[in-house]
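Minutes, project check-in

Agenda point 3 was the complex the collaborators sent over. CS summarized: two entities, 744 residues total, and the question is how they sit relative to each other. Sequences were read into the notes so everyone works from the same version.
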Amino acid sequence: MSTDREEREARWALGLLPQVGGVAIRGLLDRFGSARQAWEAPTEALLAVPGVGPATAQAIREFAWKRAVREEQTRVARAGVHVMVWGDPDYPVRLGQIPSAPPVLYVRGTLERASEAAVAIVGARHATAYGEDMARELAAELGQRGLSVVSGLARGIDAAAHRGALAAGAPTLGVLGSGVDRIYPPEHEGLAEEIAGHGAVLSEFALGTAPLRPHFPRRNRIISGLSLGVVVVEASVESGALITAHHALEQGREVFAVPGRAHARYSEGCNRLIKAGATLVSSWEDVLEVLVPQLRRQKVSAPQTRPLPDLSPGEHQVFEVLEDGPLHIDAIIVRTALASGRVASALSGLEMKGLVRQLRGKLFERIRSRER
Amino acid sequence: MSTDREEREARWALGLLPQVGGVAIRGLLDRFGSARQAWEAPTEALLAVPGVGPATAQAIREFAWKRAVREEQTRVARAGVHVMVWGDPDYPVRLGQIPSAPPVLYVRGTLERASEAAVAIVGARHATAYGEDMARELAAELGQRGLSVVSGLARGIDAAAHRGALAAGAPTLGVLGSGVDRIYPPEHEGLAEEIAGHGAVLSEFALGTAPLRPHFPRRNRIISGLSLGVVVVEASVESGALITAHHALEQGREVFAVPGRAHARYSEGCNRLIKAGATLVSSWEDVLEVLVPQLRRQKVSAPQTRPLPDLSPGEHQVFEVLEDGPLHIDAIIVRTALASGRVASALSGLEMKGLVRQLRGKLFERIRSRER
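CS then shared the predicted structure for the full assembly.
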């Protein structure tokens, strides 16, 4: 499918119609081969697409999509917001693979590295101190080991997860149920700024979109879609976090839950998830144990970059992940998705070749070429 | 294998030698065909039995077993303690099937009904208020539904479980790591009396045996052996309750655990059990859901008693379990191991036939013949 400028704008425009959800968009693209052709399709053909009813078909027919996109482009440029359209080379790979991938993402900050190996940490807004402590701790520990943390910027568990990642200097992604220029809840405006500085705040909703109730369950599919797995920290049985867990299952993501006391209201949802087969998490190790083999499989199937001369494939991979600065050995294991023994021997090899040196503890960095 | 008086005494005597554990006893019986012949076996033949080393073989050869049993019989008669030898018709069926079934049980109280459908509820001695509340609640709720509660009479979770069962008027069994005349801890002497009045206090150890450390892990196999499943309520990672869970797995019993907060010391063992596949228990329903189908299978394979004339097989079963007094419909479901719908229609049938009547709530009782 070509994504020339006009097709890209046609897709973006699909994201501007609130009636058109992710499923309908995928149906339109499948049926008509391109977004452009979908905009030109007759009502009858539109009605044959799953998820498109008479009201949606009419809205599509009547929408001045070219003008709408042009106006949106102006707003976006003025707000300094980056836009990714499904099919763009920088659109997050994992999210792009879910059936209801959003046609457009509005991004404040940078998604690229953060979406490579991400884990979602979500939960109740009315959390307990126990829940917030666990969210912060898990986010910091996983962040230190090379994972970025995705959450929903809500009060309670979500905010604690973002803060834990920030405290550990790890990238974090906040997915909104409103436009990226309308942070909700308003007291998280400062937190959103910080997140945008160390990762990104993002949304599928156009600028200016209000944080309406139905946006949040829909937003949750993006949280799980960006992530290798979802950790639910505290959740009552009515919590939106359970919707995220449900999306995660549908998308083939891992589901984790932190246990709590049997009659504790905000642990009930988590205990139920565990009963239903979610992995019980009492520390970050429980999460990594499941995700590292996944990352490994993913790397095996990804196209290999050309190895540097004189380096073993393992040494090459380790050298590559050290590009952005020093890393703890655990982080190298996560990023390369190699077994710890292979990482250790690759590091020794790189040290002997004068390409890498060990700093304090188990922190390693590249030796800059000018030093060699 | 015959269990005439002499063979019975020979088995009993095997239980009097502290060196001979359950595995060795089963080995001796398998090898020599009877306990009597084991006592007469030459050292070399004894050494060929798994679990029998030189010291044990010598102890067997030198033991004046006939005199020892006679002395024990006198002590037992004086103490008013009932003795069951493996092979006796009143020996608990389920316990008799485990490979390390104790050759002799000393019983204060009555085991018979209590061991039919029993669940073990065990845990840490140094429990939290949360743990003790859960133990008491689960024991009471399961007790009200026709299960008896097995535990170890220890401080903390065990005592709370016994008390919960007693509060619900349900039979409870306390298995000791000392002689039944030496209650440990001593402050539970009163609780032991109460338990003996509503079930039994029992032990495989001879009268007067002190509560030695190694007795307790060994005692735990009896707790699980008597039960359909073991619920661990609170346990640190070093807790003896995990040994009971381990026995339960080896014996093909169900393992349940009550979750707790991630870093709570006395929940760590439980959370680990859940991670390893134990059923998470947040209320009595989680236990019954697993055990009722088990009871059902067990009843199907048990020999059927002859139905009363004019009664359907379901009506007959329900009528039978009402022999000892009124029961709540849930308890009837557990005891008969019939589906709830079948129990409900059997009760209607019995009411129409004038054999059963409904008291307050969902409590049913037989109409005594003199009233009819």
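Noted in discussion: DSSP finds 17 helices and twelve strands in chain A.
Follow-up: revisit at the next meeting once the mutant set is ready.
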